[in-house]
Design brief:
The chain has 9 helices and 5 strands, in the order αααααααβββαββα. The chain is of the alpha+beta class. It folds into 2 domains: 6-78 and 188-200, Ribosomal protein S4/S9, N-terminal domain (Ribosomal Protein S4 Delta 41, Chain A, domain 1); 91-176, Structural Genomics Hypothetical 15.5 Kd Protein In mrcA-pckA Intergenic Region, Chain A, CATH 3.10.290.10. The longest helix has 16 residues, at 43-58.
């Protein structure tokens, strides 16, 4: 998905949705912006902003993101917020990022697209591939010497891996052991507002 200047997009949306904007400099600029007179957004505008925050965070096209939301709404499941979060988190590119194999989600998409990742022993090159409980994520042995994995062992030592994935640093094997759960206080976007946006769109 092609994007414009990430810093500019993050400032417009008012959230550090990209890794490069998760810095003290961005936080300071956001604080300065909130002290200025800003025209209040309509309810629709607020919902649109929340949708864009989520979409840009995961690097997903509008068409694909809309399809995710539509399927969750059609499922009539009781916990739709958790279900959408689970769908986004269980993309293979996001999982590769979460366990530290990639430094950013964009980097993870490149790694997957170039065929460096296997799921249950099968090479996967589709970043949106949906993982299931029990799936094993590994790096192709032939890919380990590639530039994308330089200093990987050192990087992995500082990664905070989510509880729904088990990861062995020595073997570099990740296993989906649970279900991602959305924690509202840790999210950069309001999932409920996203559903409201698509219900009225």
């Amino acid at each position: 998905m092609k994007l414009g200047p990430k810093y500019k997009i993050a400032r417009r949306l008012g959230a550090p949705i990209f890794e490069k904007t998760q810095t003290p400099k961005f936080a300071a600029s956001k604080e300065r912006r909130t002290t200025k007179m800003v025209r209040p957004k309509s309810q629709y505008g607020l919902q649109l902003t929340e949708k864009q925050k989520a979409r840009f965070s995961y690097g997903i096209s509008e068409k694909q993101f809309k399809n995710y939301v539509k399927k969750v709404l059609e499922s009539k499941s009781g916990a739709q917020n958790d279900r959408l979060f689970e769908v986004l988190e269980k993309r293979i590119d996001n999982a590769v990022y979460r366990i530290g194999i990639a430094t950013t989600r964009r980097h993870a998409r490149q790694i997957v697209s170039h065929g460096h990742i296997k799921v249950n022993g099968v090479k996967i090159n589709i970043p949106s591939y949906a993982l299931s409980k029990g799936d094993k994520i590994t790096i192709r042995p032939q890919s380990l010497p590639k530039p994308a994995f330089i200093n990987l062992d050192e990087r992995l030592k500082s990664v905070s891996i989510p509880s729904w994935i088990s990861f062995d640093i020595k073997t570099k094997e990740g296993i989906v052991v649970g279900t991602p759960k959305a924690v509202p206080t840790e999210l950069l976007f309001d999932i409920g507002a996203i559903f409201e946006y698509y219900r009225r769109a």
